[in-house]
Specification:
Layout (H helix, E strand, L loop, with lengths): L1 E6 L2 E4 L4 E9 L5 E8 L6 E6 L6 E3 L7 E6 L4 E6 L8 E9 L9 E2 L3 E6 L1
Parallel strand pairs: 2-11
Antiparallel strand pairs: 1-3, 3-8, 4-5, 4-9, 5-6, 7-8, 9-10, 9-11
Length: 121
């Protein structure tokens, strides 16, 4: 069981940067795979990035590869999404989600409330 709270969203000009944080509370954070997703108005939820139990196990959507970096600090129970070279099409509500890997099942079990990212041209 884990509760997730996103922060760090805001308004930024194209080409700028933001760092999103996903703070977790609950049981052992290192047992969770954590992903970032986003949803723009009128569009379906889209996968952005995922990080495994170890920091070296990461995966990115093609649309953000080379621009975004996901990382985690298990001591702080926090996952970060560093977003560089932002584009207007990155505008969306960003959500973090956690998958309890110990259950051996795929799929995300817990979701945060989301944080708005708006990129102006």
């Amino acid at each position: 069981q884990v509760q997730l709270v996103e922060s760090g969203g805001g308004l930024v000009q194209a080409g700028g940067s933001l760092r999103l944080s996903c703070a977790a509370s609950g049981r052992t954070f290192s047992n969770y795979v954590v992903g970032w997703f986003r949803q723009a108005p009128g569009k379906e939820r889209e996968f952005v990035a995922r990080i495994g139990r170890s920091a070296g196990n990461t995966y990115y959507a093609d649309s953000v590869k080379g621009r975004f970096t996901i990382s985690r600090d298990n001591v702080k129970s926090t996952v970060y999404l560093q977003m560089n070279s932002l584009k207007p099409e990155d505008t969306a509500v960003y959500y973090c989600a956690a998958d309890y890997i110990v259950d051996g099942l795929s799929g995300y079990d817990y979701w945060g409330q989301g944080t708005q990212v708006t990129v102006s041209s």
